[in-house]
Amino acid sequence: MKNTTLQTLSNLIEGAKLSNCADPSSMKIDKVMPLSSDTTGFLSFVSSKAFVKEAKSSKAVVLVVNAEIAESLADKPLMIVPNVELALIKVLYHFFPLEIADGTISPHAVIAASAKIGENTKIGHFVTIGENVVIGKNCIISDGVKIEHDVTIGDNARIGMNCVFYHGTQIGSDFVVFGNSTFGGDGFGFSFFNGKHNKLPQIGRVVIGDDVEVGSNCTIDRGALTDTVIGNGCKFDNMVHIAHNCKVGNNVVIAGQSGLAGSVTIGDNVLIGGACAISDHITLVEGTIIAGGTSLRTSPKGKDVYIGWDLGLNYPDFQKYRVNIKNLVNLNKWIKRIKDIEKKVGIEAEESKD
């Protein structure tokens, strides 16, 4: 990390106030570290009251806190901010700035004559860009990326190494994707006839909105007849699969190793945990939360937190289900105890012959 001063960092954050900092322009900070770090010259953050006790003994030069937590740390050097996590983002970007798109194009890239590349866009080694591709300004296209014909990518995109964009894929501005993800491959469509699986042509596209981030090794398939659509502000973890004809709303978050089967419709602000399996043609209404490891085969009845395996239960009903399963597991033990008690008190119960 680069050496900087507390005053410089404070100036980055709107509404920041310093407390117990005698000369912030001379207080040197060269790294961001956890509260418990045994080092010097570092800044740390207190994101909740649960960390106040640890913060009191921290060796940090300054602690970044909100106004409520500041009351519990009145004797420590503090930077008091409206939102601790947003402040952390700005500080980390100061120490670790993003790569700048400088307009360099590798001599090993292959770019069709009809492709249009925006100002300052940087293109790495062994990139191939097909006919009629349009890429916006200030993008970074990393090594090994393959872009077929008629693809559109908006401004400020950051494309990780070895990603693939099949023909017709449309992507908005401020798109981020990490390595080895694929967009616009064929959806999984076959018809069994005459003893074999016959492929159904997939002629739709993938259409992705603005401010979307996708992790590594993800796949978003093109639609069969109509488009697969991803809304604005969506964030997908690693190894997420979106099948053909899915319609995903705005600000949807999907954690790693989760998959949507074909023609799933998801409303805005839905959260899907890791390792979830969403069956085809299911609808999740706005604000629904699907807990990690859940499998859904039917559409939930409404906005709620759902959890379980092929059950479609909301959280309270799932807790009752767990209790009942535990009771069933222990049933044989209880039966034996009842029989032992009956024997001791001289009760002879007839066994059912049914």
SSE order and pairing:
Blueprint: E1 4-5, H1 6-12, E2 17-19, E3 28-29, E4 31-32, E5 42-45, H2 52-56, E6 62-65, H3 67-70, E7 78-80, H4 84-95, E8 110-111, E9 116-117, E10 122-123, E11 128-129, E12 134-135, E13 140-141, E14 146-147, E15 152-153, E16 158-159, E17 164-165, E18 170-171, E19 176-177, E20 182-185, E21 190-193, E22 196-199, E23 206-208, E24 213-214, E25 219-221, E26 228-230, E27 235-236, E28 241-242, E29 247-248, E30 253-254, E31 259-260, E32 265-266, E33 271-272, E34 277-278, E35 283-284, E36 289-290, E37 295-296, E38 305-307, E39 313-314, H5 315-329, H6 331-345
Parallel strand pairs: 4-5, 5-6, 6-7, 8-11, 9-12, 10-13, 11-14, 12-15, 13-16, 14-17, 15-18, 16-19, 17-20, 18-23, 19-24, 20-25, 23-26, 24-27, 25-28, 26-29, 27-30, 28-31, 29-32, 30-33, 31-34, 32-35, 33-36, 34-37, 36-38
Antiparallel strand pairs: 1-3, 2-7, 21-22, 38-39
